[in-house]
Design goal:
By secondary structure, the chain is an all-alpha fold. It contains 13 helices and no strands. It has helices at residues 6-36, 41-68, 72-101, 105-119, 127-138, 165-186, 201-222, 224-230, 235-239, 242-259, 264-279, 286-293, 297-308. The protein is globular, with a radius of gyration of 21 Å. The termini are far apart.
């Protein structure tokens, strides 16, 4: 295991979450325009801050475990960076709270539903123990002693360990979740959405789901050897080789491109994603892998610029 550096820590815990949050802000802004013909700051702020908090908190937990295993001396050297990461997390809470308070109650409920799994990626969930505790609470038997071992399951549920689930959930949360946050904030029927040719809301959501799942699988391709050694059942590991995963990604992106061929922005994004699948290798810099995260944002921004310049 390589010794963490200041640059890798900052990149992993601060810069990468910022990039993820930016991509969610772009999609939320675009959906806001599609639905209502205007940009609403509330769902944009909610999506952006929630993404930063969930990703940064998850990565910070990973770094605490990794750096803590290297001894007290290394941990002490990184202590200021841990404080800095927590400051960034804290700075995102006030705008999130303000946006939620200024939004309908449905926004808070939707946000809670879609962010809870993101906080529990690697958390062992012992349903047997939870069930026993609830049973004791409901039956008012709190005075009865229950053996500690009887409450502990030998195989706690961990989202990250369910084959392929993390990539699928990530795609749903960062596409459908964003749509429902925007829709609940605007309180408008999406069937009578603002007309923004050549886009429709349903194709934007489908495109987003495929794009976000594809990005997660791209990241898993980079970490294929480590995930296989650790026994993490990512989609590339389940398929047995990075080459097979690249073929699957290419076929899915090609299917999206053909289905929405009338929309040059989705077609262009799919072509870009397919090119990245075959260009990027394990040793490629992480910065280039992050291009797959913005293979959607880039084309949304291109559309916005062309629309603003009356080129459409």
């Amino acid at each position: 295991m390589a010794t963490p550096t200041v640059s890798t820590f900052v990149s992993y815990v601060i810069l990468h979450p910022i990039l993820v949050a930016m991509s969610s802000a772009v999609l939320a802004a675009f959906l806001s325009y599609e639905i209502a013909g205007r940009l609403d700051w509330r769902p944009i702020t909610v999506c952006m801050t929630c993404d930063f908090i969930t990703v940064s908190a998850d990565h910070l937990k990973d770094q605490e475990v990794e750096i803590g295993a290297l001894g007290a001396a290394v941990t002490k050297r990184f202590t200021p960076l841990f404080y800095l990461a927590r400051i960034f997390l804290a700075l995102n809470v006030p705008p999130l709270m303000i946006a939620l308070c200024r939004s309908p109650l449905e926004v808070t409920l939707v946000t809670a539903v879609f962010t809870t799994p993101a906080f529990l990626w690697a958390t062992p969930i012992d349903f047997r123990r939870i069930g026993a505790v609830l049973k004791r609470f409901i039956l008012s038997k709190s005075d009865e002693e229950v053996e500690h071992n009887s409450l502990r399951s030998n195989n706690p549920f961990i989202i990250k360990r369910v084959p392929g689930l993390k990539a699928i959930l990530d795609g749903i949360i960062r596409s459908c979740g964003i749509f429902f946050v925007v829709h609940s904030a605007l309180q408008l029927p999406w069937q009578s959405a603002h007309h923004a040719p050549p886009w429709t809301i349903i194709e934007t959501v489908i495109w987003s789901v495929v794009n976000r799942i594809g990005h997660c699988i791209m990241a898993d391709l980079r970490d294929y050897d480590e995930d296989k050694e650790a026994g993490i059942p990512t989609i590339p590991v389940l398929l047995g080789s990075p080459h097979k995963a690249r073929i699957v990604l290419s076929v899915v992106q090609a299917a999206v491109m053909m289905r929405f061929l009338h929309n040059p922005f989705i077609a262009g994004s799919s072509c870009f994603a397919i090119a990245l699948v075959w260009i990027l290798e394990k040793d490629s810099p992480k910065f280039y892998f992050r291009l797959s995260l913005h293979s959607q944002s880039i084309f949304i921004v291109v559309y916005a610029v062309m629309f603003g310049l009356d080129l459409l």
